[in-house]
Amino acid sequence: MIRAMDGDERRAAALRLKHDLGKAIRFNAPAAPEADVEALRERLRLDLVVTRLTPEGVRSAVEVWDAWHDAHGEDFMEEASSYLLAISLPMEVFRREVPRLDKLDRAALRQLDDLTRVVQEMIFRMTKELMKG
Question: Any idea what the Cα angle at residue 84 is, between residues 98 and 47, rounded to 5°?
Fold first, then answer.
């Protein structure tokens, strides 16, 4: 039998997502965008491929998202479905494009960078909203 999460558990799960993905997905981002395309590429590699270092090894942003979503996504559907969708869409772009990171041009890299901002903002907004309740 599956037990629904109570409010404290839901808030704790949201805070884990904020910490593990929301902060990490732009952890290495400078205040001003990188002018050098290779610097941007390397920073995106750090933020999207080496997002989390765990005792089990390196986890990418997509892996962090997939694990969290598999464990908690259903529990958030009623309250935060628009946020989950807004995070899921960039994650699908990351899933497709990050393996090709070395081949992407400046415009594609900038798009990935913009999407990291979207993911971070949506996670932060979702967490803030859930902390109110």
Answer: 30
Q: What is the pLDDT of residues 31-48, one digit of tens each?
A: 998 999 999 999 999 999
| Residue 41: per-residue pLDDT | 98
Q: Please give the torsion angle defined by the CA atoms of residues 55, 58, 62 and 66, in that order, rounded to the nearest 10 degrees.
A: -20
Quick check: 70 and 77 in contact, CB under 8 A? no
Residue 2: the pLDDT is 44
Residues 6+ apart with CB under 8 A from 76: 10, 13, 14, 83, 84, 126
DSSP per residue, 68-86: HHHHHHHHHHHHHHHHHHH
CA–CA separation, 112 and 98 (whole Å): 9
Question: Up-side HSE of residue 122: CA atoms within 13 Å toward CB?
Answer: 21
Does the predicted TM-score (pTM) go above 0.85? Answer: yes
Q: How many whole angstroms separate alpha carbon 15 and alpha carbon 9? A: 10
Angle at 32 between CA 27 and CA 37, to 5 degrees: 85
